[in-house]
């Protein structure tokens, strides 16, 4: 993993280094059967980066979240006893397509923090469910995928007006749902107590984060090859 700690997020340099890469936001595309991620990345590989096109619009909620993020990192630093620093980009050395912009990373590069400063309703929903929202899990997995040194990553939902923040700790052994399903045989016992033909059920494919990281790297590398092949086809 290469840590670009001197690059500030939301600057032209940051947008440039993210160009043609799968960051935290796009990472969920590695786990769905869709052409969306492929077309997005291919379009970037077919054109040069232009900062005026890629610098994103920030609404009031996004601006507020950015302003509150340092306070969220300060809170999680006190909670864990680990000082979290800023970094613009972490680049994977196992796949040139993979990277992530961490909200916080320790000096030893073994611990990370993903902070979300959400609306009143979103924050309250997390407190009620008492778990990290499913749509945020791919970003957590991306941290571990990009940086093999990460031992723990904390998700924190921080809202100063609320009664409390929400914090969840993840390790490589944490078992998470990435939206995949699998079919399993379920034993069925007949009326006379004897087994009959098993029933097939579709269930959630729970796997460890470590297992998902291997899938992410494999799929990213295949995607890279596919992009290169398509570029060659389009040139001739």
Summarize the structure.
With 236 residues, the protein is an alpha+beta fold.
Strand order of the largest sheet: 2-5-6-7-8
The share of residues in helices is 25-40%
For the CA atoms, what is the radius of gyration?
Answer: 20 Å
CATH topology term: Lambda Exonuclease, Chain A
Number of helices: 7
User: Please, how many domains?
Assistant: 1
CATH top level label: Alpha Beta
Report the order of strands and helices.
Answer: EHHHHEEEEEHHEEEEEEH
The profile of the biggest β sheet is: 5 strands, mixed
Shape: globular
- Please report which band the strand proportion falls in: under 5%, 5-15%, 15-25%, 25-35%, 35-45% or over 45%: 15-25%
Q: What is the residue-mean pLDDT, rounded to a whole number?
A: 92
Describe this structure in words.
With 236 residues, this protein is of the alpha+beta class. The chain has one domain (2-235): Lambda Exonuclease, Chain A (Alpha-Beta Complex). Helix content is 38%, strand content 23%. It has helices at 12-18, 36-45, 51-54, 60-80, 120-129, 137-146, 209-235, and strands at 2-4, 84-85, 89-91, 99-100, 104-106, 111-116, 152-157, 166-171, 175-176, 181-189, 195-204, 207-208. The strands form four sheets. It has a five-stranded mixed β-sheet with strand order 2-5-6-7-8, with helices on both faces. The protein is globular. The protein starts with a strand and ends with a helix. The mean pLDDT is 92.
